[in-house]
Amino acid sequence: MSQVFNFSAGPAMMPEAVLAQAQQELLNWQNQGTSVMEVSHRGKYFMELAAQSVQDLRQLYGVPDNYEILFMQGGARGQFAAIPMNLLGEKGKALYLTSGHWSATAAKEARNFAEIDEINIVDDNYKITRLDFSDIASQYDYVHYCPNETISGVEIFDVPNVGDAVLVADMSSNILARQIDISQFGMIYAGAQKNLGPAGITIAIIRKDLIGKARKSTPSIWDYAVQSKADSMINTPPTFAWYLCALVFKHMLNEGGLREYEKRNAIKAQTLYDYIDSSALFSNVVAKENRSTMNVTFVTGNPELDAKFVAEATAAGLHALKGHKVLGGMRASIYNAMPLAGVEALIAFMKKFETENI
Amino acid sequence: MSQVFNFSAGPAMMPEAVLAQAQQELLNWQNQGTSVMEVSHRGKYFMELAAQSVQDLRQLYGVPDNYEILFMQGGARGQFAAIPMNLLGEKGKALYLTSGHWSATAAKEARNFAEIDEINIVDDNYKITRLDFSDIASQYDYVHYCPNETISGVEIFDVPNVGDAVLVADMSSNILARQIDISQFGMIYAGAQKNLGPAGITIAIIRKDLIGKARKSTPSIWDYAVQSKADSMINTPPTFAWYLCALVFKHMLNEGGLREYEKRNAIKAQTLYDYIDSSALFSNVVAKENRSTMNVTFVTGNPELDAKFVAEATAAGLHALKGHKVLGGMRASIYNAMPLAGVEALIAFMKKFETENI
Known about the structure:
2 copies of one chain form a homodimer.
Chain A: E1 5-6, H1 16-24, H2 44-61, E2 67-72, H3 75-87, E3 93-98, H4 101-110, E4 115-120, E5 142-145, E6 148-149, E7 154-155, E8 167-170, E9 187-191, E10 202-207, H5 224-229, H6 239-255, H7 257-278, E11 295-298, H8 303-315, E12 318-319, E13 330-333, H9 340-357
Parallel strand pairs in A: 1-12, 3-4, 3-5, 5-8, 8-9
Antiparallel strand pairs in A: 2-10, 6-7, 9-10, 11-13
Helix pairs in contact in A: 1-6, 2-6, 3-4, 6-7, 7-9
């Protein structure tokens, strides 16, 4: 079949080189005559893989020594519950900054476990209105936000100012997309299925002094102290998903690391937004300074024409461009694994569609 | 390389036919030009896979219509926390029957969420001493037990009598190993990594009238009512693990269903125990009526000789026979995917080792 580009918002495209390696060794990993998914997580080979993956992620993302890296199950939504269980302390409340669907969902879940204050930081033009909370943040055990909202395609490039308070970021859709200063965060977490690997594994990077405060009624698989002590193996981890993440980290290092991915991601997004801005048919409604580099939303303004676009694009090998049902329209998710060629193919198709339908 | 047989206790061997199909279509699933792990769980193809997998499991295990089947994350240990959160009700306490490491671990975790009474039901000879709790069970919201203890190799073949009370079974290591009457249980659950698929997905079969009682502080991904309403997709499920489970169910149906696996499993276990009982070197210490069909433990009585056995067996392609560190000795896990040929190769090797070392 002809070349397919998959713009799925998640589970999303993975590097072809990673999938090819996984395929090649699926029945015989490390020349053991068994699949990586059939061996004990406590065996020599998997323990080596796990340790190497932590080391590679540390190098790739510049994770300081005073941060722990945990691999868990349950997705970001699991962490929506685990975070208040683990991080609430003496102050007894947390501040949630909401900028779209996922940050609001995190706040809603947290309310089942804690007293939550919520501040909306996005206006009707999808523009971030406030990032300085240094005047109020000290009242809270932590401040939570989501730097990239996948549904609306809104990204927050500057880090909120929370003074000395603990900042927690749901980076499910933009982890490892560009270089960041980890030391600005108390905790970063992400479901793997956009930039890291397959669905079913969740990565958390947590400042060590924040670990060890979990309430008694914290499930042991989400107690950061328990998992930290057990090297993320208090129970059987999702070994195959972990293995794929390990291959992705290695692949990214081989490709030139985050500096290279940051450059590629900027070029991909700029190229697509430039075309959309020049188009007489397609438009993006997000404020320019908050346009996501990962999820590019666009509409024709006519829902029937949007549906026609999605159907014809799919037939042309440009998959999963339908926008989230909440917003409609189109969404091209262009995570790390999407090559520039995919964006160029999309633009070529959009141009053709524009000519035919305007 | 020569034929390898993998006796890992979990993650464990998977059917070779399933792995071969996964390998073949890893980069191009359903002729979509993408991997199954790269597509949206809400897309047409994955939704069909999910629905078919539920239907196949229902057929394979004879799951009645008044039971819900859920696919979750977090392993059995996640459920150790989720079960009290979901099933505790008016009575406010639960009874845990302990017969080894895993049932005791479940009770320990549950104590963080509920008042738990615990009764030990195994004696020093690894014999189950009591299965009738009909006199006391009505005091409890549920009674929990583990019908197969993987570390000691102790299996409980009869179902505990709990009268009208709700019986909950951790079947992580013997789900789908033989035909059972699901209607005797309120809930059955299992991590997938022994008999169902890869690590990272957890299956629960729950009587529908027990769903909907979760306390407020239940993480939404483990709220059975929430997941039931969302067809196990309140968040992104571990799609690749789910896909592999779906292939395993289909494979088992094609091989003749549970009647066939029950027969195969009985023959494999009987063949191995018969040899051990006839051996002058190896012995199994579990009471005959409670010997596990899934995890066969054995010792020489000499830890140095045990270590030599494990090393030489590994070199001969018989992998992962080292017993759990708690008990030492050897353990051959012979789940559904282990063919009789693997058991026969192990026995042949044991005989040779016995001749050379007695």
